[in-house]
Amino acid sequence: MAVLVVGMADLKVAKAPDTLTTLGLGSCVGITLFDKKNKIGGMAHCMLPTYKGFEGQNKAKFVDSAVVELLNQMVRIGASRAGLVAKIAGGAHMFGKSQNNDLLKIGERNAAAGLAVLKQLSIPVQANDTGGTHGRTIELNPETGALSIKTVGLGTKSI
Hints:
With 159 residues, the protein is α+β, with helices and mostly antiparallel strands. It has helices at 63-76, 106-120; strands at residues 3-5, 10-15, 19-25, 29-35, 40-46, 84-90, 125-130, 136-140, 147-151, 155-158. It has 2 helices and 10 strands; from the N terminus they run βββββαβαββββ.
């Protein structure tokens, strides 16, 4: 069993018993896809909501392009597109005390972009742990689909 670490602006796929983890989700979002039947999982650590205007850059950096790439990679290794479910975490408000400046609401915009692209792709969102003001570390178990979330100062939970 290996623990595959997904870096910032990165994505990876894994078959059980391997697991996927990403550290330090602040305003970034961690989007996971899971195929229960084939025990395949995927995780993306996305920094910005949309690839539009940034064509040619790393697709994993952007929520909309990362989810599509993650889906494609999972299908390539045997996942059933029809059986996929998603879980999303992160998207915290990490920049300053002002909640009124839309430019600083990157976490909120990332989470909204994640939900929108998953809806567009008809992938149901099974769980959502976004927002707040605390960073998170997540780990996906492709055997069970459980997503463990460690939130700074708030402990660990599984969704």
